[in-house]
């Protein structure tokens, strides 16, 4: 779709909103860039935008093959922008009221079985550094429920035997996650191969906990590849993605505790609705708990 050239006033309003997202709402750079792309789809100045025009843009993108999730994200960006303008008295009517997008299918997070993960984590650290590091990453992600981006932000100080980690999550929100004894032991075991690898590449003082083949901070993409390859080498039998470990943490913890609020806090979910999806992962287990615990079920 061809984009018309924006008026200076239009561009200024978009930039103000993006600054608001970045500075006040603490959105990540990727989220701000996505919002910017969505807002650039709107040709007319905000005061001239109509519901019909917005529906036409979505219809055209749908005809061009855009997925329902993409259309929902675009509409969400528009709603936030026009709500911001309405709150700041730039417009008098919100053109996104009544705007509908295709219903998204409800997808459940994938989790790895407890026994399969236990068998993998029981293996010793491999000799090759990148797989040894992948092994540590798998244990860290599974034992803490961290997002891969959060794990790669950790500093080398995490190797000092602390019983908790301070993590900066989505929206720049900080939370504390406990470090269980087995994870502490694995991190201590990782100290020597990590230091040996860094010295080999002349980077003995690298502050990032997880490092690349050249001793620099590890990227998300490389971490994903190393985790998948290491799991395959260990015979896991399914493609392992870092986010599956986070889902496994949430699922297995909920199975063991039935404490939805605690799982929400440990995962860093802003809304408990995000955590409730884990209740569908093992309904049979929860039904058994109900049958055994609730007086009227007996």
TrEMBL record:
Organism annotation: Limnobacter profundi
Lineage: Bacteria, Pseudomonadati, Pseudomonadota, Betaproteobacteria, Burkholderiales
InterPro entries: CB, DNA_brk_join_enz, Integrase-like_cat_sf, Integrase_catalytic, Integrase_recombinase_N, Integrase_SAM-like_N, Tyrosine_recombinase_XerCD
Gene3D superfamilies documented for this protein: 1.10.150.130, Intergrase catalytic core
Domain Core-binding (CB) as annotated: residue spans: 8-86
Cited Pfam families: Phage_int_SAM_1, Phage_integrase
SUPFAM superfamilies, A to Z: DNA breaking-rejoining enzymes (SSF56349)
Name the record gives this protein: Tyrosine-type recombinase/integrase
Domain of life: Bacteria
Residues covered by the Tyr recombinase domain: 107-291
Keywords: Chromosome partition, DNA integration, DNA recombination, DNA-binding
PROSITE patterns reported in the protein's UniProt record: CB (PS51900), TYR_RECOMBINASE (PS51898)
């Amino acid at each position: 779709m061809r984009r018309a050239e924006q008026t200076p006033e239009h561009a200024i309003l978009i930039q103000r909103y993006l600054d608001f997202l970045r500075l006040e709402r603490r959105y990540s750079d990727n989220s701000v860039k996505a919002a910017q792309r969505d807002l650039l789809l709107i040709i007319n100045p905000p005061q001239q935008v109509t519901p019909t025009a917005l529906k036409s843009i979505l219809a055209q993108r749908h005809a061009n093959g855009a997925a329902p999730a993409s259309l929902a994200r675009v509409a969400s960006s528009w709603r936030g922008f026009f709500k911001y303008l309405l709150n700041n008295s730039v417009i008098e009517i919100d053109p996104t009221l009544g705007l509908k997008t295709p219903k998204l299918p409800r997808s459940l997070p994938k989790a790895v079985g407890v026994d399969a993960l236990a068998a993998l984590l029981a293996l010793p650290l491999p000799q090759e550094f990148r797989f040894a590091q992948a092994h540590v990453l798998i244990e860290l992600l599974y034992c803490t429920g961290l997002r891969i981006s959060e794990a790669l932000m950790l500093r080398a100080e995490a190797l000092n035997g602390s019983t908790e980690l301070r993590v900066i999550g989505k929206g720049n929100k900080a939370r504390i996650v406990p470090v269980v004894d087995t994870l502490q032991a694995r991190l201590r075991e990782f100290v020597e191969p990590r230091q040996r690898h860094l010295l080999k590449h002349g980077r003995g003082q690298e502050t990032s906990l997880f490092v690349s083949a050249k001793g620099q901070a590890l990227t998300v993409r490389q971490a994903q590849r190393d985790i998948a390859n290491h799991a395959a080498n260990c015979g896991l039998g399914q493609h392992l993605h870092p986010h599956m470990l986070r889902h496994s943490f949430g699922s297995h913890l909920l199975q063991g505790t039935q404490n939805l609020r605690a799982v929400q806090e440990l995962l860093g979910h802003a809304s408990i609705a995000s955590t409730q999806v884990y209740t569908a992962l093992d309904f049979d287990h929860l039904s058994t708990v109900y049958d055994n615990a609730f007086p009227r079920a007996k």
